[in-house]
Automatic annotation (TrEMBL):
GO terms for cellular component: plasma membrane; synapse. The gene is Dytn. It comes from Trogon melanurus. This is DYTN protein. GO terms for biological process: synaptic signaling. Residues 65-154 form the EF-hand domain. InterPro entries: EF-hand-dom_pair, EF-hand_dom_typ2, KCMF1/Dystrophin.
Length: 167
């Protein structure tokens, strides 16, 4: 938790310099509190770095495709020239990501993760998949992660400006 706290402090300090007045001075504290609530419910003082990174990627303001690629890079296993995501790595990713909606009471059962993993690997003979198959599956908006593109679309609409007047 201390290491993540230091990293968040540095990250938000840089963001405050880049966007003065747009970053709350307590952003690092709030983010750490959120991460701890999601990944350290028993208060052990330990949060898996990969889990925290996945949450930060999911909650970032980046476009969906960039988030999906970052998830792949974070959870993939390198194998020579290519990297692959295994079933267990996908299960870990989905479990980590599902802690985000769980924090607001929208939890998914373990069976949801298993069903999603099975759907991603449907028709795959190997024990792992390449990035393109992973991205294609995510673009199909699997039910277990439907909240992610929905939140992205909601945040994207906040930036839309119409030059119309209402009466």
């Amino acid at each position: 938790v201390r290491q993540i706290s230091g990293m968040l402090t540095k990250m938000f300090e840089r963001a405050r310099l880049e966007k003065p007045g747009q970053v709350d001075p307590r952003a690092a504290e709030f983010t750490l509190s959120l991460l701890a609530a999601m990944y350290d419910r028993s208060g052990t003082g330990y949060i898996k770095t990969k889990s925290a990174a996945a949450a930060l990627i999911a909650l970032s303001g980046d476009i969906l495709l960039a988030k999906y690629r970052a998830f792949f890079q974070l959870y993939a296993v390198p194998d020579g020239k290519e990297a692959f995501i295994t079933r267990s790595a996908l299960r870990s990713l989905l479990t980590d990501l599902n802690q985000i909606p769980a924090i607001v009471g929208e939890s998914c059962t373990l069976s949801c993760v298993e069903i999603a993993t099975h759907s991603c690997f449907h028709g795959v003979l190997n024990s792992a998949i390449v990035e393109e198959k992973f991205l294609s599956w995510l673009r199909s908006e699997p039910a277990v992660l439907l909240w992610l593109p929905t939140c992205y679309r909601l945040s994207a609409t906040e930036m839309v400006s119409h030059q119309a007047r209402c009466r």
